């Protein structure tokens, strides 16, 4: 190692309080940036910290932030859009089962190894438990497992199965795909499940409803979201 190079121990900053960690956490969690890029951005502002430390902070504080963001009551919307997307974890295929309401609000996500009726049923049971009430309608793609699971879990609920009707759920995967590319895939099922739990809670805060996409409504939504985020994280700037 050259005399101008520093190892990771030398880069470790003095112990900081929870509040002192939060500016870095705020910088990395709500946006699709690589941790190395966040490291460079902080360095430009005179903050010397390794990307591994930023990753540890995100893991340490992210779950607590997400828990506070989810304290508000569940979505009262009555249409659920269901979808599943393939994810590569450690070279093996897994499925992310995903549900959003008609406003694009993420209701639940669960990683499973299979794409069958048993997995669909588990997803619906978990979703129903979280929401506390049944929807008026569920919308899915043409996967038959949804129909079989719906008949067992919520037989009185209308089910529409059509590829074109489910763009809302499919489009909601795009931010996650962007982040997946930044992170160069996920290494474990548990790691992905922890990540989406935090990522979706924060995305729900910052992304406005599909029905409120005017410039003024979006601006007001962002101002309120930032204020809420600062209250949750304790950020002051």
From TrEMBL:
Transmembrane segments: none annotated. GO terms for biological process: DNA recombination; transposition. Keywords: DNA recombination, DNA-binding, Plasmid, Transposition. GO terms for molecular function: DNA binding. Pfam families: DDE_Tnp_IS240 (PF13610). Residues 79-206 form the DDE domain. InterPro entries: DDE_dom, IS_Transposase, Transpos_IS6. This is Transposase.
């Amino acid at each position: 190692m050259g005399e101008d190079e520093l190892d990771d121990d030398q880069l470790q900053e003095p112990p900081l309080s929870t509040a002192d960690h939060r500016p870095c956490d705020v910088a990395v969690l709500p946006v699709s940036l690589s941790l190395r890029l966040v490291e460079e951005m902080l360095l430009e502002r005179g903050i010397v910290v390794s990307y591994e430390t930023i990753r540890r902070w995100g893991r340490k504080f992210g779950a607590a932030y997400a828990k506070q963001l989810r304290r508000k009551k569940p979505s009262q919307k009555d249409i659920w859009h269901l979808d599943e997307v393939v994810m590569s974890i450690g070279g093996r295929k897994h499925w992310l089962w995903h549900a959003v309401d008609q406003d694009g609000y993420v209701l639940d996500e669960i990683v499973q190894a299979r794409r069958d009726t048993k997995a669909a049923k588990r997803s619906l049971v978990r979703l129903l438990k979280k929401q506390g009430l049944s929807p008026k309608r569920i919308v899915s793609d043409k996967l038959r497992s949804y129909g079989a699971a719906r008949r067992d879990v919520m037989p009185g609920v209308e089910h529409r199965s059509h590829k074109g009707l489910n763009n809302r759920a499919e489009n909601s995967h795009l931010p996650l795909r962007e982040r997946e590319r930044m992170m160069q895939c996920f290494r474990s099922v548990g790691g992905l499940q922890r990540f989406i739990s935090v990522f979706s809670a924060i995305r729900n805060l910052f992304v406005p409803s599909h029905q409120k996409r005017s410039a003024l409504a979006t601006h007001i939504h962002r101002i309120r979201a930032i204020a809420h985020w600062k209250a949750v994280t304790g950020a002051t700037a």
